[in-house]
Amino acid sequence: MTASPAPLDLAPAPGAVPLPRMVLAQTRYELRTLLRNGEQLLLTLIIPVVLLTLFGTTSLLDVGGGRRVDFLAPGVLALAVLSTAFTGQAIGTGFERRYGVLKRLGATPLPRGGLIAAKTLTVVAVEALQAAVICAVALALGWHPHGDPVSALALLVLGTAAFSGFGLLMAGTLRAEATLAAANLVYILLLAVGGVVFPLDKFPGAVRSALELLPVAALSDGLRQVLRDGAAFPGKPLLVLAVWTAAGLALAARFFRWE
Asked: Could you state, in order of their start, the residue ranges of all structural domains in the chain?
């Protein structure tokens, strides 16, 4: 005599999908949204490439000794990190906060830590794309980088963390319109006085010493020390970026408002 089959259990079993799947799904959404935004592409990709090509192929910029592309390429890489991790993220998150997107996401199974992880992965993915394009253009212009890639990666990671912290701080404390204006203003100012394309040695001594403490200046200088001069783990730039990172992330965690 055969045993009767076990009855099917049709009771509902609600539950969220695993956290990694939620984070990856949110990352794909964030990345698609960013890449469809023409203004963001202009800020994150086109402007850095135009600056590198313009100043790298003309004599408009006096960089002192050495070849222009060797000076410009590390600075433009630092500018790419600034544009994505700070300016783009601050503006995008600020308007998400204004339109209630963050509030609605807070009602989904995706935890806030998962949302931050998704935004971080999006920033890293965009920066990888930027680095690939910028390095390809720089190599075509005759750039010959050398140095420790681990040191360069450490600088880029710290720079990304520092800019992300202050980008989220701005987005989480100011109105969206104020964030838009302030983030773009900071971008332009740091482009002009952060040692990205204009050498800091053109400034007076006291001013130069102060500007060297800016995060974008530390990132630019550190990348030049590694990729142009062959230095390994430049101490001062890493220390400056570490201080900015700790301050930015701590302030963002303390004052960021989701609604």
From this structure: 19-255
Report pLDDT for 3: 60
Sequence-distant (≥ 6) Cβ neighbours of residue 41 within 8 angstroms: 35
CA dihedral 181, 187, 190, 191 (to 10 degrees): -130
Q: What CA–CA distance (Å, rounded) separates 55 from 62?
A: 9
- Supply the pLDDT for residue 15: 64
Q: How much is the pLDDT for 119?
A: 85
Q: Which two tokens stand for residue 158?
A: 């710290």
The list of the chain residues with pLDDT below 70 reads 1-16, 64-65
DSSP string, 72-107: HHHHHHHHHHIIIIIIIHHHHHHHHHHTTHHHHHTT
Whether 26 and 110 have beta carbons less than 8 Å apart is answered as yes
Distance, CA of 232 to chain centre: 23
HSE at residue 36, side-chain half, CA atoms within 13 A, is 6
* Per-residue tokens: 161: 């963390």
d(CA 88, CA 184): 9
**Residue 167 · residue 93 · CB < 8 Å:** yes
pLDDT at position 228: 92
Whole-model pTM: value is 0.88
